[in-house]
C-alpha cells in the first residue's frame, strides 16, 4: 500500500492491463486531408527571378502612391483601406504608420476628428483606421448624425455605404462608448432591413459583413475573398491587384510547404493508429497557427506552434474522451515532474505523447539557442502543466459527477480551453524581440489575454454543449448559467454572447496607445480571438472540420489565384 506522502507514480504497477477497460470515446470523423499536402514538402516555394523583380517593382510603385502628399484625404484613406483589404499591408507597415500619424496630427484635435466634410463613409472609415492603428480617437463625432431625440437619423438609411462603414467602425468600440453601442444596433438593424432591396453585389457585401465583421475576421481569408471581388471592379487598380495576387500565391506556396513538412512529422506519429480516439486534425492545426501569424518571417514560430497545438489536442482528447481517472492522474503528475523517467509507469499510448512533447521542446530549444531566447521553453512548459492540471480537475468533476459553480467552472475552463498555453507558446520562434519580459507579461494574465480566452471559452461552449452531452462530459458553462440564475438556455446563450462582446471591448482597449508591449505581440492574441470568431460562430469547426474549416483551407492552401497574362507583365 502507498503511503500518503508517496506519489502515485512511485507506487503504480506498470504491468497493469490498461486495455481491458471500457472507455468513454467520442465519435470524431477521420482526417479530411490525410496525406494530401505531402506533395508540397519537397517542392520549391520560390518564384522565378522575373516574378521576384516584378513584385519588388510593384511594391515601389505602391510606396510612391502612399507617400504622395498631394492626394486629398479621402483618396489616401481609401488607398490605405484598399491595401489592408487586399492583404498586402504587412509590406508597407512603416509607410502606413507614417501616413496615419500625419492624418492624426492634421485632422484631429484633442482626439476629436475635425473633418468638415459631412461624409459618413469617410468619417467612419477614418475612425476605424485610426483606431486600428492604436489612436484613441473619440466616437463623439458621430453625434452629428443623430436627430433631435438623440437617435441616429433614419435618413442615414439612404447612405448604404456610410451605414456599412459605421457598422464596421462600431466593432472597434471599448467600454463606456454608448454611442458606438447604439451605432452597432442601429446599423445592423437597418442593414438587415434593406439588404433585400439592394443591388446583388451590394446586398452580398452587406449580408457578408453582417455575418462576419472585418475587424473580427481572419486577415488572409478576408483578403482571399476581397481580391476575387475587387478583380471584377472595372475601376480596379492594376498595380495593387497584381501585387495582391502574386503575394497571395507566394504565401500560399510557403504555407503549403510548411504544411507538407508538418504532415510528414504527423505521419511518423501515425495518429490514426496510435490515437484512434483523438481528432486527427493536423492541417486544421496548421490553419490555426497560420491565423495567428501568416507572415514569412514567422515560419519557425508557425511550425513550433502547430506541433504544440496538435499534441495538446491529443492530450485534450485523452482527458476528455479516453483516459481512465487513474491513467490521467499518472499523466498529470508526469507532466508536472517533467522527467523522462516517468515513462516507465505510463501506459503505452501515453508514452508516445510524452516522448513527443519532450522531442518538440528539445528540438525547439536547439533552434532558439541561436536567438538567445532559451528562456521561452520554461514558460511554455509551465503553461502546459497548468493546462493539464485543469484537464485533471475536469476529469475529477466528471468522475465524481460534480456540478461546479460558474466561478469554479471559469477558473478551470479558461485554462483547459488551451488559450493561455497557446498564447505563451506563440511567442517562441518569433526572434530575439521576444525578450523574457514578454513571457513574464503574457503569463501574468494581462487583460487582453484574459479577454481572448473568454472569447474562446464562451463561443466554444455555446456551439459545443449539445455535441459534448451526447456522451459523458463535464457540465458545460451554459448549463451552469442556467442552473445558477434559473434561466432558459436562450437566456444563458445571451449572457455568454454579452460576455464575448465585453471581451472584445477589452481587446480593443488594450490595443490603444500606449500599449503594454509591442503591437506585434498583441496581434498574436487578437488573431487567436479572430480565429475563434470565424471558426466557432455556428459550430466547433475544428472538431467538425468538413464545413467552414475545409472551405477556409481550400481557399488559403489549395486553390491559387489565377494570374492573367497581362498581370504577369505589369511592371
CATH architecture title of one domain: Orthogonal Bundle
Q: What best-fitting shape do the alpha-carbon axes yield?
A: globular
Share of β-strand residues? under 5%
Terminal-residue CA separation: 79 Å
Query: What CATH first level of one domain would be assigned?
Result: Mainly Alpha
Keywords:
571 residues; mainly alpha; Farnesyl Diphosphate Synthase; 62% helix; globular; disordered N terminus; Probable terpene synthase 2; terpene synthase activity
Task: Tell me what you see in this structure.
- The protein has helices at residues 8-11, 49-66, 73-85, 93-107, 120-132, 160-170, 178-194, 200-211, 219-231, 238-269, 271-274, 282-292, 299-321, 325-337, 348-369, 376-399, 406-416, 419-426, 436-442, 447-468, 477-485, 489-510, 519-535, 548-558, 565-568; strands at residues 108-109, 112-113.
- The chain is mainly alpha-helical and 571 residues long.
- It has a domain at 270-556: Farnesyl Diphosphate Synthase.
- The protein has a two-stranded antiparallel ribbon.
- Strand 1 and strand 2 form a beta hairpin.
- Helix 10 packs across helix 12 (282-292), helix 12 (282-292) packs across helix 13 and helix 20 (447-468) packs antiparallel against helix 22.
- The longest helix has 32 residues, at 238-269.
- The model is unreliable at 1-6 and 10-18 (pLDDT under 50).
Summary, kept brief:
By secondary structure, the chain is mainly alpha-helical. It has helices at residues 8-11, 49-66, 73-85, 93-107, 120-132, 160-170, 178-194, 200-211, 219-231, 238-269, 271-274, 282-292, 299-321, 325-337, 348-369, 376-399, 406-416, 419-426, 436-442, 447-468, 477-485, 489-510, 519-535, 548-558, 565-568; strands at 108-109, 112-113.
Amino acid at each position: 500500500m502507498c503511503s500518503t506522502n508517496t506519489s502515485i507514480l512511485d507506487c503504480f504497477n506498470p504491468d497493469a492491463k490498461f486495455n481491458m477497460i471500457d472507455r468513454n470515446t467520442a465519435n470524431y470523423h477521420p482526417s479530411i486531408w490525410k496525406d494530401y499536402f505531402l506533395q508540397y514538402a519537397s517542392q520549391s516555394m520560390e518564384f522565378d527571378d522575373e516574378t521576384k523583380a516584378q513584385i519588388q517593382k510593384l511594391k515601389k510603385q505602391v510606396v510612391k502612391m502612399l507617400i504622395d502628399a498631394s492626394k486629398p484625404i479621402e483618396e489616401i484613406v481609401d488607398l490605405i483601406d484598399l491595401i489592408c483589404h487586399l492583404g498586402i499591408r504587412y509590406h508597407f507597415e512603416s509607410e502606413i504608420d507614417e501616413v496615419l500619424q500625419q492624418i492624426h496630427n492634421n485632422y484631429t484635435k484633442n482626439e476629436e476628428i475635425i473633418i468638415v466634410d459631412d461624409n459618413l463613409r469617410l468619417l467612419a472609415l477614418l475612425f476605424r483606421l485610426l483606431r486600428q492603428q492604436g489612436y484613441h480617437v473619440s466616437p463623439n463625432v458621430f453625434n452629428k448624425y443623430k436627430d433631435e431625440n438623440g437617435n441616429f437619423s433614419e435618413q442615414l438609411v439612404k447612405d448604404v455605404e456610410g451605414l456599412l462603414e459605421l457598422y464596421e467602425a462600431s466593432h472597434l468600440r471599448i467600454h463606456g462608448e454608448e454611442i458606438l453601442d447604439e451605432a452597432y444596433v442601429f446599423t445592423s438593424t437597418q442593414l438587415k432591413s434593406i439588404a433585400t432591396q439592394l443591388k446583388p453585389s451590394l446586398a452580398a457585401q452587406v449580408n457578408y459583413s453582417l455575418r462576419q465583421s472585418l475587424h473580427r475576421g481572419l486577415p488572409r481569408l478576408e483578403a482571399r475573398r476581397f481580391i476575387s471581388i475587387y478583380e471584377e471592379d472595372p475601376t480596379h487598380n492594376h498595380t495593387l491587384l497584381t501585387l495582391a495576387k502574386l503575394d497571395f500565391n507566394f504565401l500560399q506556396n510557403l504555407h503549403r510547404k510548411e504544411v507538407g513538412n508538418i504532415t510528414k512529422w504527423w505521419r511518423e506519429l501515425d495518429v490514426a493508429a496510435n490515437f484512434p480516439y483523438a481528432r486527427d486534425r493536423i492541417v486544421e492545426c496548421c490553419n490555426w497557427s497560420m491565423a495567428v501569424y501568416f507572415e514569412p518571417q514567422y515560419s519557425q514560430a508557425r511550425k513550433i506552434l502547430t506541433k504544440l497545438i496538435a499534441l495538446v489536442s491529443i492530450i485534450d482528447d485523452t482527458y476528455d474522451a479516453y483516459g481512465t481517472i487513474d491513467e490521467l492522474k499518472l499523466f498529470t503528475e508526469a507532466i508536472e515532474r517533467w522527467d523522462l523517467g516517468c515513462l516507465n509507469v505510463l501506459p503505452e499510448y501515453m508514452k508516445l505523447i510524452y516522448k513527443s512533447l519532450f522531442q518538440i521542446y528539445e528540438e525547439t530549444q536547439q533552434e532558439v539557442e541561436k536567438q538567445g531566447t532559451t528562456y521561452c521553453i520554461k514558460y511554455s512548459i509551465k503553461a502546459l502543466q497548468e493546462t493539464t492540471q485543469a484537464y485533471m480537475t475536469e476529469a475529477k468533476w466528471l468522475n465524481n459527477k460534480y456540478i461546479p459553480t460558474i466561478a469554479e467552472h471559469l477558473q478551470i475552463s479558461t485554462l483547459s480551453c488551451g488559450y493561455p498555453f497557446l498564447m505563451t507558446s506563440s511567442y517562441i520562434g518569433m526572434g530575439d524581440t521576444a525578450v523574457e519580459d514578454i513571457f513574464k507579461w503574457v503569463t501574468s494574465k494581462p487583460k487582453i489575454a484574459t479577454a481572448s480566452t473568454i472569447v474562446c471559452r464562451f463561443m466554444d461552449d455555446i456551439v459545443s454543449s449539445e455535441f459534448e452531452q451526447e456522451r459523458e462530459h463535464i457540465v458545460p458553462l451554459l448549463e451552469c448559467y442556467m442552473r445558477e440564475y434559473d434561466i432558459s438556455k436562450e437566456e444563458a446563450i445571451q449572457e455568454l454572447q454579452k460576455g464575448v462582446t465585453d471581451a472584445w471591448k477589452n481587446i480593443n482597449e488594450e490595443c490603444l496607445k500606449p500599449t503594454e508591449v509591442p503591437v506585434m505581440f498583441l496581434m498574436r492574441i487578437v488573431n487567436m480571438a479572430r480565429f475563434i470568431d470565424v471558426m466557432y460562430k455556428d459550430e466547433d469547426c475544428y472538431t467538425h472540420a468538413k464545413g467552414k474549416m475545409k472551405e477556409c483551407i481550400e481557399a488559403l492552401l489549395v486553390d491559387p489565384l489565377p494570374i492573367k497574362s497581362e498581370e504577369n507583365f505589369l511592371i
